[in-house]
Amino acid sequence: MSEVLTVNYDEKPCYDIIFTDNFGILGDKISELGFEGRKVCIVTDSNVKPLYANEVLNVIEPHCSFTCVYELPAGENNKNLDEISKVYEFLIENHFDRNDLLLALGGGVVGDMTGFIASTYLRGIAFIQIPTTLLAQADSSIGGKTGVDFKGYKNMVGAFYMPRLVYMNLSTLKTLDGRQYASGFAEIMKHGLIKDQKFYIWLLDHIYEINDREMDTLIPMLKKSCSVKKAVVENDPKEKGERALLNFGHTLGHAIEKARNFELFHGECVALGCIAASFISWKRNLISMDDYYEIRDMFVPFNLPISVDNIDIDEVINNTKSDKKVDSKAVKFILLNKIGKAFIDTTVTEDEMRKALEEILWVEDNE
Ligand code: GLY
């Protein structure tokens, strides 16, 4: 069981995304890409290594002259230049050259860091994304954004650098913690909301299969979700315009994430941000009240929050100003014209943000 999508860059085929339920053909793909007999370093983290590193090693060893595993400490707080330097040292000590290959085996942090190392080590070495979380499969492994956090700012230092392949073994989702799975799903729902109403309806029609992680549903779901992202990044690979639509739910989402000291998961904050942006869209008469409540309530069966407590609204609004989605003049918001059609808006006022945050703020007598 496997499916493929090819992502273009500069109107030429650039890399394939493989959707499958095992690691079986990864070795053959490495050979097909021209890395037969080369050195391969699997970069993973302390959570994922015990689960999948040996399985991946077994599949690739027959195809490579040398294999090794580098274990990053797990967690966003380790996504920094100090940890990156240690990987450079490891690659130098093991004599990796520009014809060798890195594999990013893990979630978004591993993918972003490995991609950044690949973009800079010897001015560029090839890498393959092997995302093992739904968040990384739905979003961060596609489109070539790589980087690290810097002095409290998320993804402040990085590069656009394309992988040679994205290999998704969706059976890795079977071991994913329920909250992590729901968090990844928020990005999938986002793709339906911004670009594809039919896909959004398909997701609502498959709640049970999605929550049960049925492979027959996961493969078409990820393929459709990635085809939405593929179309956007092909049109605008370096986020000069349209790619910003992928930030739907992220302006207030990131601001809430920061205000809650990163205790909430990224996708949980994205869900809250999508609800807040939909609320603003409703109040501007862009979508109907029924659409707004439908969008809000559809996060519930997918185990995502529709309200948040312990936030200071002024702090959240303030956080939007230090986010990268701010250009020199205004906060960049993504709003909806209808379900499946988003647009960029730079005129959202603090008052609109405040009302949207009041709407999602959990207070006891709401219950
Ligand atoms: N995560 C949004 C993007 O890839 O542009």
Explain what this protein looks like in three dimensions.
The chain is an alpha/beta fold and 367 residues long. The protein has two domains: 174 residues, Rossmann fold (3-Layer(aba) Sandwich), CATH 3.40.50; 181 residues, Dehydroquinate synthase-like - alpha domain (Dehydroquinate synthase-like, alpha domain, Up-down Bundle). The protein contains 14 helices and eleven strands. It has a seven-stranded mixed sheet with strand order 1-2-9-6-5-3-4, sandwiched between helices. The longest helix is centred in the middle third of the chain and has 21 residues. It starts with a strand and ends in a 7-residue tail after the last helix. The mean pLDDT is 96. Glycine binds next to loops.
Would you spell out the secondary-structure blueprint of this structure?
Layout lengths: L1 E8 L2 E9 L5 H7 L6 E7 L3 H12 L5 E7 L8 H13 L7 E6 L1 H13 L5 E6 L2 H7 L4 E6 L2 E8 L4 E5 L8 H18 L1 H9 L1 H5 L3 H21 L14 H10 L6 H18 L5 H10 L14 H9 L11 E6 L2 E5 L4 H11 L7
Parallel strand pairs: 2-9, 3-4, 3-5, 5-6, 6-9
Antiparallel strand pairs: 1-2, 7-8, 10-11
The structure holds glycine.
The site of glycine (GLY) has 5 residues, from loops.
